[in-house]
Design a protein that fits this description.
alpha+beta, 4-stranded antiparallel β-sheet, 8-stranded mixed β-sheet, 14 strands
Length: 391
């Protein structure tokens, strides 16, 4: 059993008591078998969606100097703008530029854990140039926060759990994140970098992510258990939901976290734009799990049996219990891994440990493939297999 298309779920069915059981059954199947799905009739107005897309594209039209005023490495929060080609996945450069935003938080106190640095004010672009940018995105983030919480409750119900089953993993003022991403087409890339990696194969790290595909381009693909890449083309009026490794871990593997990637547009097609929203989890959370009913676990086992006993894909599962005391520690390390320039400025000791671990992993892989133990330069090739989607 292996999926060959991405299911589409209608959220309006979940709002009607008569059709909600049908919706929950479809959602359960998508969670167990795919881990990737479209949702439509989300409750977010078409007018707001259009303004989000318009303002997002306008940001990338700002002069470079204005974009660099809010560069990510200006602050230890990993919020802000990243220049083209400044992130690496699976030892290859991701050819995109982006700005990261989040729900607003004050600066942490000096006595707070270091991972509280992730909770901080946004770096907003110049309001004289983009007066509607901040109010548009504050509204969208607020509405997406409500949507993601509601959808997580539906996931709980689909697993025969109380709708509040995941509530303990969220802060009262929970941080959620958002990226606005531009993938230039191949003609805009350096002549020696004509590869199609917009973002390399990876899984999301938290619970759920919600992608607004903001242009007509294809490029987003999910990997099935055969290793085949299944297209996830833009569909008007929908968001793409990706299940994260955190949700897979919390549900004992019932919810499948699916590997996905983005291919850069072909030369002459113009830039691809996307706006993913990431549902956050408390950084103080520990690596617990929920008590999933046996009948649902049996469904998981049956799916795994039909798949040959495992979910095969190109990315190792990295949400490992026992390595970290709190989720915030794992999240901060992963951000340093994905953004070494921020690590060099604000977290040199964490970056040193990441590079040492990367070198060991590279050496082990080289030995396993009979490469004579040759080690690839991990100083410039930091990979992030567990990361926020930027598709």
């Amino acid at each position: 059993m292996s999926f060959d298309s991405i299911p589409i779920l209608d959220l309006s069915l979940a709002r009607d008591a008569k059709t909600k059981p049908i919706f929950l059954q479809s959602l359960r199947s998508a969670l167990l078998e795919v881990g990737f799905l479209y949702i439509k009739n989300t409750g977010i107005s078409d007018e707001l969606i259009e303004e989000v897309i318009t303002q997002g594209k306008a940001f990338f039209s700002l002069p470079n100097a204005k974009k660099l005023e809010v560069q990510m490495k200006n602050a230890p929060s990993f919020l802000g703008y990243n220049v083209l080609g400044n992130e690496v996945t699976a030892f290859k450069t991701d050819w995109r530029e982006q700005i990261d935003l989040s729900t607003p938080h004050p600066l942490p106190k000096s006595t707070d854990p270091i991972y509280y640095n992730l909770l901080a004010p946004n770096q907003w672009p110049d309001s004289n140039l983009l007066p509607s940018f901040r109010p548009t995105y504050e509204s969208y983030i607020a509405q997406m926060s409500t949507l993601s919480t509601s959808f997580t409750s539906l996931i709980a119900e689909a697993l025969a759990l109380p709708s509040t089953a995941f509530d303990r993993f969220f802060d009262k003022d929970q941080q959620h994140k958002l990226k606005i991403v531009k993938y230039p087409d191949l003609s805009a890339l350096p002549a020696d970098q004509q590869c199609q990696q917009g973002v390399g194969p990876h899984k999301d790290s938290m619970l759920t992510s919600y992608l607004l595909q903001a242009s007509h381009h294809r490029g987003l693909q999910a990997q099935n258990i055969k290793g085949e890449w299944i297209d996830c083309p833009p569909r008007p009026g929908t968001l793409v939901v990706a299940i994260g490794q955190g949700l897979e871990a919390l549900t004992h593997g019932v919810c499948a976290s699916t590997t996905h990637r983005v291919l850069s547009p072909a030369a002459g097609q113009g830039a691809r734009f996307s706006i993913p929203f990431f549902q956050g989890v408390s950084y103080d959370a520990t690596f617990e799990s929920v008590d999933v009913p046996q009948e649902i676990l049996d469904m998981r086992d049956e799916v795994l049996r039909k798949q040959g006993g495992r979910r095969a894909d190109d990315v190792e599962f990295t949400f490992r219990k026992g390595k970290w005391e709190h989720l915030g520690e794992a999240t901060l390390t992963n951000r340093v891994r994905s953004h070494p320039d921020v690590g060099e400025r604000w977290y040199p000791e964490i970056l040193r440990r990441v590079r040492e671990e990367q070198a060991r992993e590279t050496e082990e892989k080289a030995k396993a493939t009979g490469d004579g133990g040759k080690v690839t330069d991990s100083m410039s090739g930091l990979t992030g297999t567990r990361k926020e989607i930027a598709v």
